[in-house]
TrEMBL record:
It comes from the Bacteria. The record marks 142 as: Participates in a stacking interaction with the thymidine ring of dTDP-4-oxo-6-deoxyglucose. Keywords: Isomerase. This is dTDP-4-dehydrorhamnose 3,5-epimerase. Pathway: Carbohydrate biosynthesis; dTDP-L-rhamnose biosynthesis. The gene is rfbC. InterPro entries: RmlC-like (IPR000888), RmlC-like_jellyroll (IPR014710), RmlC_Cupin_sf (IPR011051). The active site is at 66 (proton acceptor), 136 (proton donor). Catalyzes the epimerization of the C3' and C5'positions of dTDP-6-deoxy-D-xylo-4-hexulose, forming dTDP-6-deoxy-L-lyxo-4-hexulose. Homodimer. Its EC number is 5.1.3.13. Gene3D superfamilies: Jelly Rolls (2.60.120.10). It catalyses: dTDP-4-dehydro-6-deoxy-alpha-D-glucose = dTDP-4-dehydro-beta-L-rhamnose. The keyword Isomerase applies.
Length: 184
């Protein structure tokens, strides 16, 4: 597995080794030992995953920016198994040097990349193709009472969602009512 560090400490892009031939391909989508080693080598906490989630989105669907407040905060290991998505994490750790900064990466069924987003980040994505299937492992169970969101197009964050050319952005009513970053 190739591990790429991002400009924000803790956010990692993981590129699994993919073995392919004329029959197709094979990859190890998750290996606890390799994941732990990658985090430990960078001085990062090693989580325990407790829940897997799977969503299907059509082109232009934007989900996020979601997070849960402590003690129910979630770390997420995310990937796309079909289609393409632009995936974004926003640093909401108040004591962080990169507080309020965001990082995005394209995840697709073809590039097999995974994105590690530890606790302390808001997360969202936009589907760039129809039938985009998004999988994520979470380090804590969903807790409705601690669920929060930041409006996806907050001017203070100025996220480049890579949506040029999309005819329509589809956002849930709940996400459209999300708070601004300055009020989280």
């Amino acid at each position: 597995m190739n591990v790429i560090e991002t400009k924000i400490k803790g956010l990692l892009i993981l590129e699994p080794k993919v073995f392919g031939d004329d029959r197709g391909w094979f990859m190890e989508s998750f290996n606890q030992k390799a994941f732990e080693q990658a985090l430990q080598e960078r001085g990062l906490d090693v989580p325990q995953f407790v829940q897997d989630n799977h969503s299907l989105s059509q082109k232009g669907v934007l989900r996020g920016l979601h997070f849960q407040k402590a003690p129910f905060a979630q770390g997420k290991l995310v990937r796309v198994v079909q289609g393409r998505a632009w995936d974004v994490a926003v640093d909401i750790r108040e004591d962080s040097e990169t507080y309020g900064q965001w990082f995005g990466v394209e995840l697709s069924g073809e590039n097999h990349k995974q994105f590690w987003i530890p606790e302390g980040f808001a997360h969202g994505f936009v589907a760039l193709e129809d039938n985009t299937q998004f999988l994520y492992k979470a380090t804590n169970y969903y807790n409705k009472a601690s669920e929060r969101a930041i409006i996806w197009n907050d001017e203070d964050l100025a996220i480049d969602w890579q949506v040029d050319g999309l005819v329509e952005i589809l956002v849930s009513e709940k996400d459209l009512e999300a708070n601004r970053f300055s009020s989280i």
